[in-house]
Amino acid sequence: MFTHAIGMANGFTFPYIGLRRRSDGEVSSSVGAFVVVNTGGWLMTSGHIVSEILDRQRECDALAAGTVAPDERATLCADHVEIWAVHGFSESKPRVVEAMINPLADLALVRIEPFGLEAIATYPVLRDTGAHPINQGMSVCRLGYPFHDIQASYSPANREFDLAPNAFPVPSFALDGVVSRFHRINSDDASRGATFIETSTPGLRGQSGGPLLDIEGRVCGVQSHTTHLDLGFDAHYSDGDCSITERQFLNVGAATHIDDVRAIMDEAGIEYRAE
Question: Who's near 18: CB < 8 A, 6+ residues apart?
């Protein structure tokens, strides 16, 4: 059902890799996704991905300025690198030069440079919900990069991160489902709101920032998080002599609604195609 949609989306969806080194030397990595929106190098991804980048930079700045208590230094970020893995990224090394974050909608719009048009095979079409509403029960598919660990080390002499040989390419992973419901949240003063599309399948680690697609390949939302809904009953089982009770939950994916995405892009004057 989604063969055509996934084929299209693989042309404008790419992996984000975040590399971190703590002051105590521990190295870690994280994987997410992003969508290239237009020829100007604008991307859309989850707000929490970009917020985390800014948090790590603040930690690096505080360490460099010597404003951190000695007992706090070990766990703070001392070095970080962001890999926006569009085609040819290893040579061009694109970096974020502009960023806008809407925390309520968990959406970030960023612009990278350098950006080569030859890196992108196709650009996304955002679903026009005026002509094509997103309805409960509609089939959708999520795309991102779960189940792929990025092993990295850090070279103090070169002040660079080194990736394992199998780090790239990062394989994309598709997961379909149906639109289960729409979840609306409001700011504390009720002056702003955001709508999330909840789906019958969960979002997976590594899919944050990736597209939620309809069967034509139009983007219906941007994957944000997974919500754990309490089913209201427990499961009871035995493990040897031990009796175990576990609360049961339904894990549903939540994607920033494309109407909210388009509203933010319209406000910022970012060009996109909608149908």
Answer: 29, 30, 31, 32, 49, 52, 53, 56, 80, 81, 82, 83
CB atoms within 10 A of CB 214: 21
Tell me which H or E stretch contains 262: helix 258-268
Gap between the Cα atoms of 250 and 226, Å rounded: 10
Domains of the chain, by residue range, sit at 3-274
pTM: 0.95
Are the C-beta atoms of 21 and 153 separated by less than 8 Å? no
CATH hierarchy code of domain 3-274: 2.40.10.120
Q: Render each residue's pLDDT in the chain as its tens digit; 275 residues.
A: 999 999 999 999 999 999 999 999 999 999 999 999 999 999 999 999 999 999 999 999 999 998 988 888 999 999 999 999 999 999 999 999 999 999 999 999 999 999 988 889 899 999 999 999 999 999 999 999 999 999 999 998 888 999 999 999 999 999 999 999 999 999 999 889 999 999 999 999 999 999 999 999 999 999 999 999 999 999 888 888 888 899 999 999 999 999 999 999 999 999 999 99
